[in-house]
Amino acid sequence: MVIDNLNLATFCMILLLAFTEAAPKGSLVTRLPGFNGNFPSKHHSGYLSFDQKNLFYYFIVSERNPLKDPVVLWLNGGPGCSSFDGFVYEHGPFNFEEGKPKGSPPKLHLNPYSWSKVSNIIYLDSPCGVGLSYSINTTKYITGDQQTAVDTHTFLLKWLELYPEFVTNPFYIAGESYAGIYVPTLASEVVKGIKAGKKPIINFKGYLVGNGASRSKFDGINALLSFTHGMGLISDDIFEEIQSTCKGNYYKPTANCDTSLGKLDRSLSGLNIYDILEPCYHDPESQQKAQGNSTLPVSFQQLGATDRPLKVRKRMFGRAWPLWALEREGHLPLWPKLAEQGSVPCFSDEVATAWLNDESVRKAIHAQPKSIAGTWELCTDRIDYESYVGSMIPYHKNLTTQEYRALIYSGDHDMCVPFTGTQAWTRSLGYKIIDEWRPWISNDQVAGYLQGYDNNLTFLTIKGAGHTVPEYKPRESLDFYSRWLDGKPI
Predict the structure, then answer these.
(1) How far apart are CA 54 and CA 47, in angstroms?
(2) What is the similarity comment for this entry (predicted)?
(3) How many CB atoms lie within 10 A of CB 54?
């Protein structure tokens, strides 16, 4: 039997349309306000409920080969930040164009660098109380690292029961920022479940962490000092003075050390911690003026240049509190508390906020209205989050020595979680180097550098990217993501 190209395309489309027929009724997303056209693959969304918790997910079937492509769970950090951050601003299926006039609903265009090009991907609002996830019982908003891992594992088991056609697909966990804690703790919980024979068995293969916290001695001011000194943000004198007066003790600094650290703070206070190349404006009025000011220098207007209709946001807020501040505090404060102190300026997420609080959008994606699930915020203060686990290094070592694959990547202009700390902790594992430090190529250009280790561990930098790598470098991000998932050299 000979099938011509047209019939073959029709056959493939029928196969794709039939592929998720086992999905729960009412989960299919058929339209989205702001987008005109057909989706390249099926979209599903809704809630999974257990223990009085309602966790919201948005699932995109791979545009390539959903029968074989990996299923990837995406988690944003905070703690307390919605994974719609990744959906709207990073590697989701759409690019969002700000509505005109200002305040109008955004327009959506297909994203040529969506990670759904090569994988099935789940965006999950976790823990309960974050984003569109909610509970009528607000005591469920009291949580922490371990409880979040347990709940997300429960979600995955229930999700695979609803979508059994994906049980045999390779499964990966991915995330950024504070998801540097979420990802390895969840991965460990998944592995424990596999060993205990919990059904359905998750076909777990590995994980990715982008600009992620490790909560180890390599994070914090040590990483910040080497980063800012190497980038020319502090002088030799300041660098040497801090080393001399503090002697590595930043938790309870002496008076002299505190004075030296004050010089560091003053040197960095005007910078955008999420990308040191991005301009930062220090109050809402000046931010609005600057965004509409065509007299800004061309070099500033071109910073964060991207293929997206919605340019890289000029912000310093809502992702993760800088690790050097956490080290000095000795605990993990949530960002709203710090914002009230006036510590973190320069932030706008108007497009995502307007879109996800539009009731027609919520209806289209099967989310509860604001009267039930509350107002969507990029990062929320309604959860009471405590950190119960320590350094992630033992988690990474345990997972990688069990032959689970790990890609640890860093935008090299992020000052929130500097690549210097990530490079140091990956090296500290002591694994044999099997792919010595070298550039990697995207679009015929050097896109960054990598070092490959034994036990399937890769450390990778993305040149010129900030904290949220795919937001700054979408093409390069899809390149390393697809190559790594396919087991090809990056």
Answers:
(1) 6
(2) Belongs to the peptidase S10 family.
(3) 21
- For residues 36 and 112, give the distance between their C-alpha atoms in angstroms, rounded to a whole number: 16
Q: 67, 96, 92: which is closest to 82 by C-alpha?
A: 92
User: What residues act catalytically?
Assistant: 177, 414, 467
Among residues 419, 407, 377, which one has the least CA distance to residue 484?
A: 407
Contact criterion met (CB below 8 Å) for 189 and 150: yes
Domains within the chain, CATH numbers bracketed: 21-217+388-485 (3.40.50.1820), 221-350 (no CATH)
pLDDT digits (tens, 9 = 90+) for 153-197: 999 999 999 999 999 999 999 999 999 999 999 999 999 999 999
Q: For residue 431, what is the DSSP state?
A: P
According to DSSP, the β-strands at 107-110 and 94-97 are antiparallel
Q: What is the pLDDT of residues 83-127, one digit of tens each?
A: 999 999 999 999 999 888 777 789 999 999 999 999 999 999 999
Q: Is residue 132 a contact partner of residue 373, using CB atoms and an 8 Å limit?
A: yes
Q: What is the spatial distance between Cα 92 and Cα 392, in angstroms, rounded to a whole number?
A: 28
